[in-house]
Amino acid sequence: MGILRLLRARASTWSKSSRIKPQRIVAAVCFACACALVVWILTPDQGGTSIVVAARNLPPGSELRSQDLTVVEFPSQLVPDKAFTSVSDADHKRTSAGLSKGSPLTQSAVIDQQALPEGSTDLLMPVRLADDSSAALLQPGQRIRLFSSLPDGGSDVVVKEVTIARLVDKSDGISAESGQLVSVILSSDDAERIAEFAGMPISFAILPR
Q1: DSSP secondary structure string for all residues of 2-13
Q2: What is the pLDDT of residue 208?
Q3: Which of 142, 109, 152, 133 lies closest to 209, judged by CA?
Q4: Which residue, 52, 118, 139, is CA-closest to 91?
Q5: Phi and psi at residue 25, in whole multiples of 5°?
Q6: Cα separation of 6 and 188, whole Å?
Q7: What's the chain's average pLDDT?
Q8: Alpha-carbon separation of residue 15 from 12, 192, 199 (angstroms)
Q9: Nearest of 61, 208, 206, 198 to residue 125 by alpha carbon
Q10: pLDDT, tens only, 2-57
């Protein structure tokens, strides 16, 4: 009898200790739901849009070639406005700013050497720079500050910042005058300011990127 009582007591103890409490069930369900939510958030959306991105790091003013670009699937909700969808559409354009590898290529990231982006209020204006040798440092996409010498000595800032759209080759026709002719992107106010210095030598400083 003593042995039977002992076995019954042990069985009762095991039953109580192995019983799963409702709180533990609720906690386990909540944990499973949380894990499922995290996985759902981190799982990439299978749907996407094919866009052009930089295949390597590109400095400002880079002339784009097919090997510089690649097409990738991008999450549709993250595709920037006016992104290129074909490498051929961006071929031979120049970057207006530096692009890191994997960055989407958009219309605002390139310079059209003949026209401004649609809806832009800026102007394209030719400016002749006095020093041919220093102008060899320039490339499209760079931002420069323009200066001019004053008749009574000293110098003055003509325009604090313009962006180079194009360097005009000597073979393009205007070769009689010395100095590098550049096409710059600037506001109408800055264009009027430059016009005030017509006929005076214009120098420049390259602004940091």
Answers
A1: HHHHHHHHHHHH
A2: 86
A3: 142
A4: 52
A5: -65, -45
A6: 101
A7: 75
A8: 5, 93, 102
A9: 198
A10: 555 655 565 555 455 555 555 565 566 556 656 665 655 565 555 678 888 889 88
